[in-house]
Amino acid sequence: MAYRETEKMRLRKAENRQRILACAQQLVMEGGFRNAQVTQVASLAEVATGTIYRHFASKEELFAEVFRNATRREVQNVFESLAQPGDAIQRLELALTRFAQRALNRPVMAWALIAEPVDPVVEAERLQYRKAYADLFEQAIREGMSEGSIPAQDAGSSSTCLVGAIAESLVGPLSPAQGGYGEATKTINTDTLVNGIVRFCLQGLTGTGR
Q: Could you tell me the CA-to-CA distances from 129 to 47, 58, 73, 93, 102 in Å, in that order?
């Protein structure tokens, strides 16, 4: 007689998988991907190391899913910001401001998502989500061009530049090379930093001081 998995067993497996993911994300939030090991995840989740590999083919696949889950929330935040009332510049200003503020408020996780050296599987996810941000910005830029708040330009190239500019400008403040994850954010005026980043991005789009 063929083995049939019961609903109770399926639920238990799903719960174990979610607990493993939650514990892996907690470790990444505390010390980045480099400090999150499978053995630590197993200990925190109170499962055997082998149990993790029954749910994820490899360490890389586990942390790629952690990356997807965390970044999906950030992309959703940008999407929601761009859906607010106002012209395209106002909405882009809100989205860029929230992106930078959220990164500086959670420096360890932000560094892990934006710039930490990672395995190729996770890096592939990073490239996909950078494209997701760029696609959202591109749509907003096209809307701005249509309404006249943004001058005519290559919206695709401009959106890619936005993603690169805001990510690169946050690398220094978030970098562990500055004395520890996000230590630089304790000695700088983060409001001034965020405003400077956003002003630069919007000036690049509009060619004005707006």
A: 31, 21, 11, 20, 16
